[in-house]
């Protein structure tokens, strides 16, 4: 691996308003919604750490104090659990505190994902870094980010995660035009379009929320005008980088074929909870037979 490609930092945009989950998100950030018994955001931070990225910068906004509190000590609760000798629960409480070296910056104006990522410029400096979006949970048994970091280092390039989606949903994603490479799960990206109109997507390779980016992305983002939805789009910056490999290293995609749980809308969120709970040692054995019976009684 190229030693110049030393990566230690993860950036997690978490400034969205979570309007799809109102009223639950009226006073609480959507990232704190529990997926089984852990807030969605904790899975994402755990994934970053599992890939060796211990320095985590969250891009937050108003109403997001619960996020900072979740990754900080909670003295009174810890003392109570300690007094009771409840070491199991104490462990659970401390896990998120000890997970990573957390940093926070506010986005300010809600000008889009590209703008949120640009807010990480001062913290990241001139190093490659990862971006993880909170709506996607990647199963820890199918390591994706680690694979992306490997490829980014090998190619000294930026790498996004791609998923082959049904063409009918391609318009909900950033979609890539691709060419094969010598590596089966890696493609070279020649073009990108953010949320193409239905029926116009250049392929069914959709970006899912994982990126390993070279710092040149900041230079490009600074010059990226508002795009789709009037927002500064990360996809548009990557499209520029894909077209300028001489100084950006180009953009590649790692095609993910593992387990991914989408928590971005209500239906997917419910599915994610069921999928994850069914596989849990503590809940699965009771949930599975119940679920079967429940399903057989539907209609
Ligand atoms: C963002 C990106 C989009 C990407 C998606 C993945 O969109 O802009 O390119 O495909 O995340 O989840 P959002 O879902 O935030 O609208």
Protein model, in words:
The model has no long low-confidence stretch (mean pLDDT 94). This protein starts with 8 loop residues before the first strand and ends with a helix. The protein has 2 domains: 3-264, Spore Coat Polysaccharide Biosynthesis Protein SpsA, Chain A (Alpha-Beta Complex); 265-299, no CATH class. The strands form 3 sheets. Strands 5-4-1-6-11-8-12-10-9 form a 9-stranded mixed β-sheet. The longest helix is centred in the C-terminal third of the chain and has 13 residues, at 266-278. The chain is α/β, with parallel strands linked by helices and 299 residues long. 35% of the residues lie in helices and 23% in strands. Bound molecules: 1-O-phosphono-alpha-D-glucopyranose (G1P).
Quickly describe the structure:
The protein is an alpha/beta fold and 299 residues long. Helix content is 35%, strand content 23%. The chain has two domains: 3-264, Spore Coat Polysaccharide Biosynthesis Protein SpsA, Chain A (Alpha-Beta Complex), CATH 3.90.550; 265-299, no CATH class.
Features:
299 residues; 23% strand; 12 helices; 9-stranded mixed beta sheet; Spore Coat Polysaccharide Biosynthesis Protein SpsA, Chain A; binds 1-O-phosphono-alpha-D-glucopyranose
Termini distance?
56 Å
Q: Within the largest sheet, what's the order of strands?
A: 5-4-1-6-11-8-12-10-9
| Average pLDDT metric | 94
Secondary-structure element order, N to C: EEEHEHHHEHHEEHEEEEHHHEEHH
Helix proportion of residues, in percent?
25-40%
Please work out how many helical segments DSSP would assign: 12
Rg, rounded, reads: 20 Å
CATH superfamily of the largest domain: Spore Coat Polysaccharide Biosynthesis Protein SpsA, Chain A
* CATH fold type of the largest domain: Spore Coat Polysaccharide Biosynthesis Protein SpsA, Chain A
Name the CATH class of the largest domain.
Answer: Alpha Beta
Largest sheet data:
9 strands, mixed
């Amino acid at each position: 691996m190229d030693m110049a490609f030393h990566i230690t930092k993860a950036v997690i945009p978490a400034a969205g308003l979570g309007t799809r989950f109102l009223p639950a998100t009226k006073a609480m950030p959507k990232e704190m919604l529990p997926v089984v018994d852990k807030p969605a955001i904790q899975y994402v931070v755990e994934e970053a750490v599992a890939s060796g990225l211990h320095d985590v910068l969250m891009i937050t906004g108003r109403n997001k104090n619960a996020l900072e509190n979740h990754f900080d000590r909670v003295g009174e609760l810890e003392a109570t659990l300690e007094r009771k000798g409840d070491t199991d629960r104490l462990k659970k409480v401390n896990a998120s505190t000890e997970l990573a070296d957390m940093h926070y910056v506010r986005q300010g104006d809600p000008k889009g994902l590209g703008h949120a990522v640009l807010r990480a410029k001062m913290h990241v400096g001139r190093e490659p870094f990862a971006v993880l979006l909170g709506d996607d949970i990647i199963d820890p048994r199918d390591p994706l980010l680690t694979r992306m970091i490997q490829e980014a280092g090998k190619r000294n390039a930026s790498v996004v995660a791609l998923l082959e989606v049904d063409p009918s949903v391609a318009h909900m994603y950033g979609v890539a035009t691709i060419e094969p490479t010598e590596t089966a799960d890696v493609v070279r990206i020649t073009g990108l379009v953010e949320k193409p109109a239905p029926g116009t997507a250049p392929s069914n390779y959709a970006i899912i929320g994982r990126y390993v980016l070279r710092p040149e992305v900041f230079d490009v983002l600074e010059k990226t005008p508002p795009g789709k939805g009037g927002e500064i789009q990360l996809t548009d910056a990557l499209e520029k980088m894909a077209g300028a490999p001489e100084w950006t290293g180009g953009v590649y995609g790692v095609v993910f074929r593992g387990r991914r749980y989408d928590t971005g809308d209500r239906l997917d969120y419910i599915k994610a909870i069921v999928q994850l709970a069914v596989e849990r040692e503590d809940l699965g054995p009771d949930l599975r037979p119940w679920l079967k019976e429940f399903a057989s009684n539907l209609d």
